[in-house]
Amino acid sequence: MDFDFDIVLEINEIKEKEIDELAIFDGSTGMKRTFTDHYNSTRGIAGSLKYDMGVDENSCVCLFAPNHVDYMPVTLAVGLCGAKITPVNPLYKANELLNVLDGSRSTTSDCFQCQTNTHHIVHFPSGTTGKPKGVAISHANLTWVSRMDYFLRCPFFHIYGMVVSAMYSSWIGNPIYTMSGRFDFELMLEMITKYQPKNAHLVPPIILGLAKSPLVDKYDMSSLELIISAAAPLGAETEIAVRDRLQCTVKQAWGMSELSPIGTITPSEKIKPGSVGLVVSNTYGKILDKDGNSLGPNQQGELAIKGPQVMMGYQDEPQQTKDCLSSSGWLLTGDMFYYDEDGYFFMTDRIKELIKTRGFQVAPAELEELILGHDDVNDVAVIQIPDEASGELPRAYIVLKAEEKEEGSTDHDDDKEQEEKLKKCIYEWVKERVAPYKRLDGGIVFVDSIPKSASGKILRRILRDELAEQMKVAK
């Protein structure tokens, strides 16, 4: 099989450098692979995909799997066939999976012509106004991005876990310690104690556990020299608490699928708690006001990014691509930032209405569309509520159908009991149809109406403002 030079072949060059050294270890199963295993498996899987399943440059392969020791060989094998790959959350329900299969035009499921300007990954983060959009990421987007071992808990289907953790570690020859089963905080502590990794790629809910859990004191965490937090904002207080408790460097990075996925990262030699750092190399960043004018230090506005990692566009969505990506290559991120006199960026809010739950993105519109399918629901709006452990949780404001309202009794206690039963019924109905992080764990609130603009657009900002006022009063 003859293939063009690309990111896949670059990664596989490590075979010549690190032949029998550990590539990945799965603490959930005890399975492990060396870099030679990766190299050989990639070729074998590629041959099977190409000759047994007919995968070629016109194909898109959906990888529907948890973290696994063979996740990266499958990913690279798809690339060797010249095809695209779409990683998918293995917790997705059938309807969620179908949305991704339809959007990615996947022709093959598994439990890249490979040139720099062709697709390698079609990633589906949650959309802000509807179903998820496929972010087309090329080989060139990926190749722009010291040998040390890593503990990686980030799921490989997530852009952070797949590119920054698994793919980058394979590229530079770093061994990975991960787990394929349900996340177990104590197992993570046991693995760090036993295998002594120097670095960890984590998300804020896990870092919060490192700051507060008494279990941490039972284990030897002294090997850790660096923890990188990404996928969601990390509070300065938590960052400092973990730094002081574990006596290691804790720093943040920021990005999005549209940036393949890195936009900023904090340099280890100068860390500012709460900041996501400086724009990465070969990259420009600027803060814009609502009229598109550039702002100076300490002025809040939307962050725009230009660099080699900016996506090719949204697959089959030319208008949505045009809305956020200029002809000169500037990407409007939809996130509110400011930068200080040293060029360090601080995230303050999101223009986009995505809900960030444990590092995963939840689109309010996607949940709203689903909930409207419930027999008792007439209208609905979904917003985020703050949560210390998860960052944010989805909350649904629901207008019931008239017949449900009319069935209420004259007894207030009975009404309350009936209302709680109905909330539980709707919660369970949604739970059966979505991944765990999309569940309505922020609660359900019955309301008489949903605030909307004259054109019918849901004004979630009003609900968020009302919630913020209620929380302020509660304090």
UniProtKB/TrEMBL annotation:
Key word Ligase present in the record?
yes
Tell me the Pfam families matching this sequence.
AMP-binding (PF00501), AMP-binding_C (PF13193)
Q: Name one GO molecular function term.
A: CoA-ligase activity
> What keyword terms does UniProt attach to this protein?
Ligase
Q: Which residues form the AMP-dependent synthetase/ligase domain?
A: 20-106, 121-314
Per the database record, which ranges form the AMP-binding enzyme C-terminal domain? 366-457
User: Would I find Ligase among this entry's keywords?
Assistant: yes
Q: Which family does it belong to?
A: Belongs to the ATP-dependent AMP-binding enzyme family.
What name appears for this protein in its UniProt entry? Acetyl-CoA synthetase-like protein
